[in-house]
Amino acid sequence: MIPYDGGLSLTFSVALVAPETLSVTSVYHYVFVYTRDIPPALLAWPIATLLYATGAVSAALSRVDREDRRVTAGLFALGAFDVCYAAVGFSSARAGVFAIPLGAGFLGLAAWTSRP
């Protein structure tokens, strides 16, 4: 969640959403179309999405008894740290914008429950 003077922007694992205008920017468009040559801190969001998706696939492998819980917990924990790094990248003290990394808490909880 990124509150700013003009409103609020919601950052989900698959898209950025501006509720005021109902505009949606997918991760693909964010990385490859609209923001070429973006700072590394802003690439943390797509990387966190990749870590989350890989962790979810790893957790799904438990259905066929092929999961390594250490890998799953590690992927979710790395995703949580990356979400925090992305929040720092989206924040700007000069502009008075402070991103709130709510997803880091959920990924941290997923990592904690996935630990061996």
UniProtKB/TrEMBL annotation:
Which keywords appear in this protein's UniProt record, sorted alphabetically? Membrane, Transmembrane, Transmembrane helix
Supply the name of the protein. DUF8050 domain-containing protein
Q: Which residues cross the membrane?
A: 42-61, 73-90, 96-113
Residue ranges occupied by any DUF8050 domain in the UniProt entry: 8-113
At the highest ranks, the source species' classification is:
Archaea, Methanobacteriati, Methanobacteriota, Stenosarchaea group, Halobacteria
This protein's species is Halosimplex aquaticum
